[in-house]
Specification:
By secondary structure, this protein is an alpha/beta fold. The chain is about 60% helix and about 10% strand. Bound molecules: adenosine-5'-diphosphate (ADP).
């Protein structure tokens, strides 16, 4: 294994450690994601300190060299000081390059790529466990951007703090010791410089920090507005709102730029103060050194050390300014990411969650209460038993709570009170994976992943064979059109890619793929949520057949606006305001002459075409 590989693999970037919610404070958050990298960071810090010390030693030696050149005779210099000169040569040619090499390798090979990737990996796995609500409350694009940027910002914050700041601290300390050894009076301007420098930082840093938090907020609002326009581009165009959208984004940009102005005013104040202080230092050190020399108190070598270090300090303090500005920008990004990442998983498996075991697929809603918004009860003491193999149709006006009832069964949300049982097991006591494994669902808007058609169908059951997949696709009447597909890269049939740069599918085609996926999954419970409402009548007829096949032997909940699609089911349940207001078979409900019968008459013009 070569040395690069060794350092690259020192810490695995993608370890499968358990992830949990990161702490909601800057230090805790960074520490949480630094797991595994502490040792590498520690070594990096030690090497940075050593490199600072060796550099100052060289400066100290410079003073001595000047003294030797003034006082020694050229013929005896090598004889008298040969060992010291060789020692310095060794330091310069062997020790310093070695320190620099290992420091660079630890930084470039071990940390630069792996550290942020492990933050990303850990954050991504935690975010995947977040509930549907979490994703409904934010933009997918924004969350993804945060995952990308926060990981880099965590790395830069921690590494800059440890590497640059420790380097600077040790450098100053070594500098003061070296100068004081030449003459303690020379150290006085330097100590004054340090005290004033720290006071300047103490004044500016909290202000910069405050601005960087505000800037992070403004940045995320600005990004959000832009993402919103892009994500809904067809609506924007449809309503000819391109201009107002750019105005909306412009306001976000203006708000953001104001925070940048404020930040930059502070940065200008800070950097000017430091510039001034540096000039004062160079001047006072030179003045003290010359007056000491006039009085014969110090050698020329000491002056050389003092002035060269003062000049070095001048250059370095500007570099520190630059690093500090970057540090604060990174801290702002970390805080912004923290606000997204440090949210608890609202829906979590219990620690002792069991696996859902299906014996008959009976579903019970027992006194279920639910509300999305506090104090706005939507589902109220809802009771419903669906027998094994029974097929029910849920209907009611839009907003009645039908999809919510299904979402509760899938545990996308937790019930506020009451319980939902599947074969007498409370769904909140079983693992979410085992619950959803037993439920097949076809919804109105099918989202297909940006992968091949095959991968999309196999999403239903990863280990299905090619034959099983094709059987499922044929049942869903999707096989014939799939084999004719070609994407822009020339992939054909099941290998054609869906989405960006891939094949564009019609609503009916997407729906058939979704049905094939659920056929393949072959789960004992089936949920159809407006599964055919986006389709035209002809396609609907074709798919309806597939759906009836799909329902065979399963417990089914079907939601539909178009009553003809559910009228033939075993039992129809009419819901309003989260409660059942009527239930029975199609015929019984028509005879009853209630809400259903009115709806039916309204939709079909009184034609009773269902047996
Ligand atoms: P249906 O399927 O019968 O049309 P839903 O169950 O989708 O009705 O919605 C019922 C009510 O709950 C509606 O008033 C809707 O606005 C509200 N609602 C749905 N989803 C959410 C959500 N994620 N957050 C807040 N309110 C919601």
């Amino acid at each position: 294994m070569n040395i690069f590989t060794y350092f690259e693999r020192l810490v695995p970037a993608l370890s499968d450690d358990k992830t949990s919610m990161p702490p909601n404070n800057l230090v805790g958050f960074c520490l949480y994601y630094t797991k595994g990298y502490k040792k590498a960071l520690f070594i990096m810090t030690i090497l940075a300190s050593l490199s600072a010390i060796t550099e100052v030693i060289l400066f100290g030696f410079l003073g001595q060299l000047v003294d030797w050149l003034v006082t020694k005779h050229p013929t005896t210099l090598l004889h008298d000081e040969g060992m010291k000169l060789m020692g310095m040569g060794f330091l310069l040619l062997i020790v310093i390059p070695l320190i620099a090499f290992f420091h660079t390798v630890i930084v470039n090979q071990t940390l630069v790529a792996n550290y942020p990737m492990s933050v990303r990996w850990s954050a991504h796995r935690y975010l995947l466990k977040q509930s549907v609500t979490f994703y409904e409350e934010d933009f997918a694009g924004r969350i993804a951007t945060k995952v990308m940027q926060t990981s880099l910002a965590v790395r830069d914050t921690v590494m800059k703090l440890l590497d640059v700041m420790v380097y600077v601290f040790v450098y100053f300390l070594a500098m003061i010791v070296t100068i004081a050894r030449a003459d303690y009076r020379l150290a006085i301007p330097m100590i004054c410089w340090l005290v004033i420098y720290l006071l300047i930082q103490a004044y500016f840093v909290p202000l910069l920090r405050k601005v960087s938090v505000e800037q992070a907020d403004a940045r995320s609002t600005m990004t959000g507005r832009i993402v919103d326009s892009y994500a809904n581009i067809s609506t924007v165009k449809l309503f000819s709102h391109t201009k107002s959208e750019s105005e909306y984004a412009k306001q976000g940009m203006l708000d953001f730029i104001v925070t940048v102005y404020r930040q930059m005013r502070l940065v200008t104040g800070l950097s000017f103060s430091v510039q001034l202080l540096n000039s004062l230092l160079a001047f006072s050190i030179a003045a003290v050194a010359i007056s000491l020399w006039i009085n014969g108190a110090i050698t020329i070598g000491a002056i050389a050390i003092a002035i060269s270090l003062a000049l070095r300090l001048k250059g370095m303090s500007m570099w520190i300014m630059y690093e500090l500005a970057a540090l604060f920008e990174n801290m702002g990004t970390v805080i912004d990411g923290m606000n997204t990442f440090s949210k608890p998983n609202v829906i979590e498996d219990k620690s002792n969650a069991s696996t859902l075991k299906i014996t008959a697929a009976k579903i019970n809603y027992e006194q279920v209460d639910f509300q999305y918004v506090k104090d706005h009860a939507l589902i109220d003491k809802f009771c419903l038993t669906i027998q094994p193999g029974e097929k029910i149709g849920l209907l009611g006006r839009s907003g009645a709570g039908k999809s919510t009832l299904v979402n509760l069964l899938l545990r996308f949300y937790d019930v506020t009170d009451g319980k939902i049982l599947i074969d007498d097991q409370n769904i909140s006591d079983v693992s979410q994976d085992s619950l959803r494994l037993q439920i097949g669902m076809v919804t109105q808007d099918t989202s297909l992943l940006h992968r091949s058609i095959r991968e999309n169908i196999l999403y239903g059951r990863e280990d299905a064979s090619e034959e099983e997949m094709i059987v499922a696709t044929k049942k869903a009447q999707a096989h014939d059109f799939i084999i004719d597909l070609t994407d822009s890269e020339g992939n054909i049939g099941y290998d054609a890619q869906v989405g960006e740069r891939g094949v564009k599918l019609s609503g009916g085609q997407r729906q058939r793929i979704a049905i094939a996926r659920v056929f393949l999954k072959n789960a004992p419970i089936l949920v159809l949520d407006e599964a055919t409402s986006a389709l035209d009548s002809e396609v609907e007829m074709a798919i309806q057949d597939s759906l009836f096949q799909l329902m065979e032997g399963k417990t089914v909940i079907a939601i539909a606006h178009r009553l003809s699609t559910i009228a033939a089911l075993d039992r129809l349940i009419v819901v309003d305001e989260g409660k059942i207001i009527e239930q029975g078979t199609h015929h019984a409900l028509i005879e009853k002459g209630g809400v259903y019968s009115q709806l039916w008459t309204h939709q079909t013009g009184g034609f009773l075409g269902v047996d």
